[in-house]
Design goal:
2 helices; globular; mainly alpha
């Protein structure tokens, strides 16, 4: 499985997700793993519009 890329090597089809990640964490800051923040009950619009992953 190839799920981790250097930022310069991200395939064009995933570029919107890189932007979404930057925008989502810009105001939030680094969550240090996120567990201390808990569920924020929101997603970036790009993520919310995408396919739902199996949970």
């Amino acid at each position: 499985m190839e799920a981790i890329y250097y930022s310069d090597d991200v395939p064009d089809e995933w570029a919107d997700y890189v932007r979404a990640n930057v925008e989502f964490f810009k105001g939030l800051g680094s969550p240090q793993g996120g567990s201390a923040l808990g569920n924020l009950c929101r997603d970036h619009p790009v993520v919310a519009a995408g396919p739902v992953a199996a949970r």
